[in-house]
C-alpha cells in the first residue's frame, strides 16, 4: 500500500509563485502513482491541500453535506459547491517539477516564502512553518496515544497469528 508521508521544507519563489518540489518528494509522488493532474485547494484551518485528481473527485463528491438519512442537503449544496469548486485550482507540475501556487490562494492560506509540505496519506498539505510547528506541538499528545494504540493492536494481531 503506497501513501504520501513526511515533512519537506521548501521555498516559494516570490516572483513566480512557484515552488520547486524536492527530488525525494517528486519520487514519492511517482512511486505512489500520484502523478498527472492535481487540485490545489484550501483545506481545514486554512491549509493548502494538493490532491491527485482521482482522490479529489472522490473526496469532493463524498463530502457533500448530508442529512441524517444520508441525502444531500439541498439548502447547503450551493454553498458547498461554490466553496469546494471555487477554491480549487486544477494544476500540474511543470517539466522542472515546479508547482504554481496562485497569489489569491497563497494569500488565503497566509503563506510567505518559507513553507513545509507534509505528506498526508493520499494528498500533500502546504503549511506556513510556524503554523505547522504549533499544530504539531498541540497534536503530539494525541499522536502519542494513537501511536501506542496502533502498536498494541499490531502486536496483538501478530501474537494471535503465532498461537
TrEMBL record:
<keyword id="KW-0805">Transcription regulation</keyword>
<dbReference type="GO" id="GO:0005737">
    <property type="term" value="C:cytoplasm"/>
</dbReference>
<keyword id="KW-0132">Cell division</keyword>
<protein>
    <recommendedName>
        <fullName>Transcriptional regulator MraZ</fullName>
    </recommendedName>
</protein>
<dbReference type="Pfam" id="PF02381">
    <property type="entry name" value="MraZ"/>
</dbReference>
<dbReference type="GO" id="GO:0000976">
    <property type="term" value="F:transcription cis-regulatory region binding"/>
</dbReference>
<feature type="domain" description="SpoVT-AbrB">
    <location>
        <begin position="88"/>
        <end position="131"/>
    </location>
</feature>
<keyword id="KW-0677">Repeat</keyword>
<dbReference type="InterPro" id="IPR020603">
    <property type="entry name" value="MraZ_dom"/>
</dbReference>
<dbReference type="InterPro" id="IPR035644">
    <property type="entry name" value="MraZ_C"/>
</dbReference>
<dbReference type="GO" id="GO:0009295">
    <property type="term" value="C:nucleoid"/>
</dbReference>
<comment type="similarity">
    <text>Belongs to the MraZ family.</text>
</comment>
<dbReference type="InterPro" id="IPR007159">
    <property type="entry name" value="SpoVT-AbrB_dom"/>
</dbReference>
<dbReference type="InterPro" id="IPR035642">
    <property type="entry name" value="MraZ_N"/>
</dbReference>
<dbReference type="InterPro" id="IPR003444">
    <property type="entry name" value="MraZ"/>
</dbReference>
<keyword id="KW-0804">Transcription</keyword>
<comment type="subunit">
    <text>Forms oligomers.</text>
</comment>
<keyword id="KW-0238">DNA-binding</keyword>
<dbReference type="GO" id="GO:2000143">
    <property type="term" value="P:negative regulation of DNA-templated transcription initiation"/>
</dbReference>
<keyword id="KW-0963">Cytoplasm</keyword>
<dbReference type="InterPro" id="IPR038619">
    <property type="entry name" value="MraZ_sf"/>
</dbReference>
<keyword id="KW-0131">Cell cycle</keyword>
<dbReference type="InterPro" id="IPR037914">
    <property type="entry name" value="SpoVT-AbrB_sf"/>
</dbReference>
<dbReference type="GO" id="GO:0051301">
    <property type="term" value="P:cell division"/>
</dbReference>
<dbReference type="GO" id="GO:0003700">
    <property type="term" value="F:DNA-binding transcription factor activity"/>
</dbReference>
Amino acid at each position: 500500500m503506497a501513501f504520501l508521508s513526511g515533512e519537506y521544507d521548501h521555498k516559494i519563489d516570490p516572483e513566480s509563485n512557484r515552488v520547486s518540489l524536492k527530488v525525494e518528494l517528486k519520487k514519492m509522488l511517482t512511486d505512489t502513482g500520484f502523478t498527472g493532474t492535481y487540485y490545489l485547494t484550501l483545506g481545514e484551518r486554512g491549509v493548502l491541500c494538493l490532491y491527485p485528481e482521482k482522490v479529489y473527485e472522490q473526496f469532493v463528491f463524498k463530502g457533500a453535506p448530508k442529512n441524517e438519512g444520508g441525502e444531500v442537503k439541498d439548502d447547503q449544496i450551493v454553498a458547498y459547491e461554490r466553496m469546494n469548486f471555487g477554491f480549487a485550482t486544477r494544476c500540474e507540475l511543470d517539466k522542472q517539477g515546479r508547482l504554481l501556487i496562485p497569489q489569491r490562494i497563497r494569500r488565503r492560506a497566509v503563506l510567505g516564502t518559507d513553507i513545509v509540505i507534509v505528506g498526508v496519506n493520499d494528498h500533500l498539505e502546504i503549511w506556513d512553518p510556524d503554523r505547522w510547528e504549533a499544530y504539531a506541538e498541540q497534536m503530539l499528545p494525541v499522536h502519542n496515544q494513537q501511536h501506542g494504540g496502533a502498536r498494541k493492536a499490531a502486536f496483538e494481531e501478530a501474537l494471535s497469528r503465532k498461537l
